[in-house]
Design a protein that fits this description.
The protein is mainly alpha-helical and 67 residues long. 84% of the residues lie in helices and 0% in strands.
Length: 67
């Protein structure tokens, strides 16, 4: 909820960066909020959310030593 106003206050106005930040930090709620901003913002948010999930599924077993 406070993400977009906070990022805009910090001078981040690129919709792609805003979408990535919302997708990584706020997951589905952030992606839904990004859809209210623009289609580009929501696409970047969905991509970031999916990549974080995939990287977690791939890297976490390697980090904790499950083979």
């Amino acid at each position: 909820m406070a993400g977009p106003p906070l990022l805009l206050r910090l001078g981040i106005c690129d919709e792609r960066i805003l979408g990535v930040a919302l997708g990584i930090n706020a997951h589905a709620v952030g992606t839904a909020r990004a859809l209210e901003i623009s289609a580009l913002c929501s696409a970047c948010a969905a991509l970031a959310m999916g990549l974080c999930g995939a990287l977690t599924a791939i890297l976490l077993p390697l980090i904790i030593g499950i083979h």
